[in-house]
Design brief:
Elements lengths: L10 H15 L2 H30 L3 H35 L4 H5 L5 H34 L6 H30 L5 H22 L2 H8 L5 H8 L8 H13 L7 H30 L16 H7 L3 H15 L1 H4 L2 H17 L5 H26 L11 H6 L4 H30 L4 H28 L15 H20 L1 H9 L13 H30 L3
Helix pairs in contact: 2-3, 2-5, 2-20, 3-5, 3-6, 3-7, 3-9, 3-10, 5-6, 5-10, 5-11, 6-10, 6-11, 7-15, 12-13, 13-18, 15-16, 15-18, 16-18, 16-19, 16-20, 16-21, 18-19, 18-22, 19-20, 19-22
């Protein structure tokens, strides 16, 4: 009797089994929080979209065309961000994943392996934008009473519009692995990211959205503005094809632009998979820095930053080491370019948008601090949350040294805090000065920015240390894990809590400047209680988050 040949392992079976075990070992409270947060976000998105459609529908076809144009612009913006993040994510996923050696050693074709890797790149770069877009499309379909066949067509269009930039990014990653100098692939991709980010900033500012606000202030020009804005968009861009297909499907018509979009997306994904499978030997070897480095045996003294950190003890020395490694590895900070670009666009737009009423300008200047907290959380989810997990297998080297988990967590916190603190203060003070806020709001902007930096950074390091993932195949996947999403939700919640604590003195200084000039609103009972509450929330939030991190890390085996 002849033995039956061994059946080739299923790649998806391996990945799904690993995902199931990860979910079983993960914190249940984190999953519950992410589920509640997702439900609230879904309700808010559906409700806001329905109200926007109802309001614009009062203007007839002109108003609905405006919504269609906003949908098109949103798809263009999201797909541009996906194209940028997919380039750097594809380099890590296609060539630097830890499980690539294991998969290529199996009796599987390289095409199957890299098809899986391209799919992982899509999940890392485009899953969140896709999930955010689908509720909006379902709301549009229900509002226009679309036929049943329109729902899968609209979902397919959303899938294609985000899969196309992933295929383009994967192709670009393969091209860089082939032509970039040995050991400089990540630097080249980072430089490319800088150019893309600068282009996005320039393109958004070239639209001059403040001019639209000025024209809308004139009641006689509202209809003309809506007519111009609701006109045809960019017919040569694939996101415009998707927007046309989605809008016409919602009205019961199957649009032809979906066909070239499907062909383009399939072509990009297939080409990326085949080229990666064909060129992985040379490209992979080049990406692993296979050349012999030229070592300089000359001893070097510690720099100024390292000497300053070393005064804090062993934890400070570890923080200096982490900061040096972060600056040396472009994949650790290249993703921050998008966040920095968004912060730049935000600050320039705040300065340019005319707000003639001082009270409204003060209230808006105070509320926008919550958005700044969300930007700080976007930085922390890339630096603070994966800080402990990125130690990888080297973490056990730290545990064998005379270093406690408390020192490890504190060193990670001290290493990330300067970045978030400087960024928070720059955004808070710059936006307050640009909007011409009063002394009370100017001081509150600085205090809230400092509080956000301390607590959000500690929250990221603490949650990351409480549920570390030392065997992560790709650091980019840590930010979209249940723990990363829970961290983003808690960070935004804390930013709102800070605003609520100081809402009464802030409102008094804005609405009654005659009764509360200067810093008088802070000397009231409500102002003193608000400042005390902010101080207590900052200290407790920072301490409890870090304490949770090193407490769970001590029990980690």
């Amino acid at each position: 009797m002849t033995a039956r040949p061994a059946r080739a392992p299923s790649l998806w079976g391996l990945k799904l089994r690993a995902l199931r075990r990860t979910l079983q070992r993960g914190p249940r409270w984190g999953y519950a929080f992410v589920g509640v947060l997702a439900l609230l976000l879904l309700i808010a998105e559906v409700y806001g979209s329905w109200r926007a459609l109802t309001f614009l529908g009062r203007f007839g076809d002109i108003g609905l065309n405006v919504f269609a144009r906003v949908l098109e612009i949103g798809l263009i913006t999201l797909s541009s961000g996906v194209a940028f993040s997919a380039t750097t994510a594809a380099i890590s996923t296609l060539y630097l994943s830890d499980d690539l050696n294991f998969l290529l050693a199996q009796p599987l074709s390289a095409v199957r392996v890299f098809a899986l890797k391209v799919t992982e790149t899509f999940l890392n770069a485009a899953l969140v934008p896709l999930l955010l877009t689908l509720p909006l499309l379902l709301t549009v379909a229900v509002f226009f009473q679309a036929p049943l066949w329109a729902y899968p067509v609209m979902g397919l269009a959303a899938l294609l519009v985000f899969a196309a930039p992933v295929g383009l990014g994967a192709l670009l990653a393969v091209f860089l692995m082939r032509v970039a100098p040995v050991g400089r692939v990540r630097e080249v991709s980072t430089a490319l990211g800088v150019l893309i980010s600068a282009g996005l900033v320039y393109a958004i500012r070239a639209l001059r959205p403040e001019v639209l606000v000025q024209r809308l202030q004139d009641p006689t020009k509202v209809e003309a503005v809506l007519r111009d804005f609701g006109g045809p968009g960019s017919p040569l861009l694939p996101p415009s094809w998707a927007a046309q297909g989605i809008w016409q499907a919602a009205h019961g018509t199957l649009a032809w632009p979906l066909l070239p979009l499907a062909l383009l997306t399939a072509g990009l994904l297939v080409a990326a998979t085949l080229l990666a499978a064909r060129a992985y030997q040379e490209g992979w070897a080049r990406a692993l820095d296979s050349s012999t480095p030229k070592l300089d045996p000359t001893p070097r003294r510690a720099g100024t930053v390292e000497r300053l950190f070393s005064r804090l003890g062993q934890g400070g020395s570890l923080a200096a080491k982490d900061l040096r490694l972060t600056l040396r590895d472009p994949t650790q900070w290249s993703q921050l370019l998008v966040v920095v670009a968004l912060a730049g666009v935000y600050l320039v737009s705040v300065r340019a948008v005319p707000i003639p009423v001082p009270q409204f300008r003060g209230i808006l200047g105070y509320i926008q601090l919550a958005f700044q907290g969300f930007i700080i959380a976007g930085v922390a989810v890339r630096l603070a949350f994966p800080a402990v997990s990125t130690e990888g297998r080297a973490y056990w080297l730290l545990r064998t040294a005379p270093i406690s988990p408390r020192q490890i967590v504190l060193s990670k916190f001290l290493g990330v805090l300067p970045v978030t603190l400087v960024m928070g203060l720059v955004m808070g003070l710059t936006s307050a000065a640009a909007m011409g806020l009063g002394p009370t709001l100017f001081l509150l902007s600085a205090l809230v920015s400092v509080s956000n930096a301390f607590v959000i950074t500690a929250l990221g390091v603490g949650l990351g240390a409480a549920a570390p993932k030392f065997d992560a195949d790709n650091p980019a996947e840590l930010g979209v894990s249940p723990g990363g999403l829970a961290f983003m939700g808690l960070s935004l919640l804390y930013s709102v809590v800070c605003l609520l604590l100081l809402a009464r003195p802030a409102a008094a200084s804005v609405l009654r400047p005659d009764l509360f000039p200067g810093y008088a609103a802070l000397w009231t009972l409500e102002g003193g209680l608000g400042l005390l509450g902010l101080a207590v929330a900052t200290v407790l939030g920072t301490w409890l988050s870090l304490r949770l991190g090193w407490g769970r890390l001590e029990r980690w085996e």
